[in-house]
Amino acid sequence: MIRVIVFDPNSCRCRFYDVVV
Predict the structure, then answer these.
(1) What pTM value is reported for the model?
(2) Would you give the end-to-end CA distance of the chain in angstroms?
(3) Please, which residues bridge with residue 16 across strands?
């Protein structure tokens, strides 16, 4: 399981995605 942090410029916040490898 990898947690990916992506910044969303539209909402000005960071989104967290849990990716299963």
Answers:
(1) 0.30
(2) 6
(3) 5
